Amino acid sequence: MTIQDSTHTIAHSAKRFFTGTAISRLSGLAREVAMAIVFGTHPVIAAFWMAFRFSHLLRRLFGEGALHAAFVPHFEKLRKQDPRLGARFFYALSSGVTFLLFAITLLTEGVLGSLLLFGSIAESTAQVIQLTMVMMPAVIFISLYALNTSLLQCERSYFLPSVAPTLLNCVWVVSIFLFWQLPIEKAVEYLAMVVVLAFALQWGVTVPSTYRYLKTNLGSEKEYSKREMMQVIRPFMIGMIGVAATQINTACDALFARWADAQGPAYLWYAMRIQQLPLALLGIGLTGALLPPIARAIEQKNHVQVAHFLQFALKKAIVFMIPMTAALFALGFCGINLVYGHGNFSQEAVYQTTLCLWAYSLSLLPTTCVLILASAYYANKNYRLPTLFSLITVGVNLLLNTLFVFQFHWGALSIALSTALASFINAALLYKSLSKEHTLTFTGLSLETRKVILASTLSIAATLYIGTYFQDHALICLQPAIDFPRALNVQLLSFGAQSLTFTATFLICAYPLRLFSLNSFTKTK
């Protein structure tokens, strides 16, 4: 029996995605903690994270970005006509992507190897190139995993693909403790090799479900017309321009961070991993659950339902992300100190990472809105405007990075702050353009937003007050010379007291302010 799409089914799918992602993100947090404790923010680790980001530039192209956005609407259209058409399309696309990724990987390895053999390169740069070459094959498994995930989400299977990274993280953590006694250069080299294997295992988790789908729907005929494939390739190429620009911008962010501070890429990475927890749980979860239903609604020419789905998702994003932003500010310092403030992770590293986290936290709401609004464009096979807006955002980000790093000398904080400011511009451009096509009116949303901001502000104030009883609270970042707790029991007590204060204050404020949208993900009005 076909399940009718509704805000209830979107919320139910998002909750399943939320559950799996929560498990994988917690395991990912354990991975980051292990990396921070064992290796700290040593320049070699900064080089490792730079190489990790460089080797994953294609991930957003062939995995989670343009290809995903082009695949879902066309797949839904085809399988509405005939399930076998959809299956043949997925099979042909997977085969083509696999061949292309192998070719690109071999070409990249050849170019980077030539630079090492014939180029005059500084030792620190050569280290980044070597690690990039080691981790480059991982992009094949990452992209195939993401393509399988797109298929499974169209099949309303959200938990399995979202929990699959847990296996990756577990293998990574075990490897850290296997190599920790080796010289750091050798340990990082071995760890880079294990990363490739771990991503292959993550992809392997999705293979059985994908195989069962193909076995049921593919049949003996596997040919797919080139003309039909071009209907995906054309929008993919347009979307790829915007995604490629974003990925180049990501690489430039790492370079700006390196120029600002030799350990800057590590500060940014550890801060970003904390900031991405709520973003992955709600923002990416809502988007993953939203794109297939919107694509089906557009296919049925039901524009009223499209607007209704968007209003529902944006309302949930506003009501949840504003308190999350407040929580990251109020609990950022004691949280960073608890999670990373051990072993080789210095007090200076805790201080700098917290500043970066505060700046990144400003981008939570606009980034979530960008993910939601862009899904409406992609579902409607409109890739031109999101691409244009991405290019504008990249230009703004590069300009701000240059200003903050070289003119104001704000260190690694510059990159996080530039990212946050640019995300607001991207969200505003998407919303303004989309509101002309779909009438997006939010009855009572402005009042509800003010209520959430008030409750969040009072929660921050109460948390800072309680934090003054500990040598570990947000305002201490304004006085970095002060020593803060390194004992685990004190860190736990401090974080526990402040997080309990924030949560209790917010919930107490929520009742008289009648913030009913916080009650349940399934509430649609």
Overall description:
There is one protein chain. With 525 residues, the chain is mostly helical. It has one domain (7-518). Helices cover 81% and strands 0% of the residues. The chain contains 19 helices and no strands. The protein has helices at 7-39, 43-55, 59-62, 66-81, 83-118, 123-135, 138-154, 159-163, 165-179, 184-217, 226-260, 264-299, 303-340, 347-361, 364-379, 384-407, 413-437, 445-467, 488-513. The longest helix is centred in the middle third of the chain and has 38 residues, at 303-340. The chain starts with 6 loop residues before the first helix and ends in a 12-residue tail after the last helix. The relative contact order is 0.12. Mean pLDDT is 81; it is low at 519-525.
Poorly predicted regions: 519-525
How large is the share of residues in beta strands? under 5%
State the helix count. 19
Q: Could you estimate the helical fraction of the residues in percent?
A: over 70%
Radius of gyration: 23 Å
Which structural class best describes the helix and strand composition? mainly alpha
Gist?
81% of the residues lie in helices and 0% in strands. It is mainly α and 525 residues long.
Question: How are the SSEs ordered, and which strands pair?
Answer:
Layout: H1 7-39, H2 43-55, H3 59-62, H4 66-81, H5 83-118, H6 123-135, H7 138-154, H8 159-163, H9 165-179, H10 184-217, H11 226-260, H12 264-299, H13 303-340, H14 347-361, H15 364-379, H16 384-407, H17 413-437, H18 445-467, H19 488-513
